[in-house]
Amino acid sequence: xxxxxxxxxxxxxxxxxxxxxxxxxxxxxxxxxxxxxxxxxxxxxxxxxxxxxxxxxxxxxxxxxxxxxxxxxxxxxxxxxxxxxxxxxxxxxxxxxxxxxxxxxxxxxxxxxxxxxxxxxxxxxxxxxxxxxxxxxxxxxxxxxxxxxxxxxxxxxxxxxxxxxxxxxxxxxxxxxxxxxxxxxxxxxxxxxxxxxxxxxxxxxxxxxxxxxxxxxxxxxxxxxxxxxxxxxxxxxxxxxxxxxxxxxxxxxxxxxxxxxxxxxxxxxxx
Length: 271
Prior knowledge:
This protein is of the alpha/beta class.
């Protein structure tokens, strides 16, 4: 069986059209090598733009966007109609056979409401985030069928619960769950920096490799901000069955090819 690569694509790199074209070209190179590829994406910057245009209020609680049913309609419009549609169009224009999906398709992902807790006056309190969800279960049947027929699945992070209620799920965690369930050979998380840096202002402080144990031990001291969910995503993927996880710089498209060739780039996370 040919190697399976799952790419988590997101961040500000998505807003650069020239860079997006380069990413799509590298995905084509991986597939030309005989690899099976799945792309998972979010779209935070585009959601912010939509909320600004429509006057929709955006409230964050503990780093999570509180999502009302009305807000979710706009989120899904952006993720499925704008971002997913554009990626499918670009990939198909290069001769690939891309298929746009969300976690709702084929009941690929079953969601549950996310339970967020905060400490208020010394007491633990549950906070309602609305239509923000977590992954409860993954069914890989549809993805495996598409891969067998040489399609390129491009998946966004909307999913339904068992009763059909829709939820927005953090794209990093969504991708990690899929990578683990599919037992991918390579899980590549694209970000805007070269990987995990011990000093965010010093590019030479890149950590080239970290074990799962080291991530758990060191994350409080050297890891902050947007890198936290990316590392959590890698841990999740490895724990659930992925063979390798790597955080790479999405603004350097060649790293996609280098990473699956086991050349040194980014930060490799291993069990």
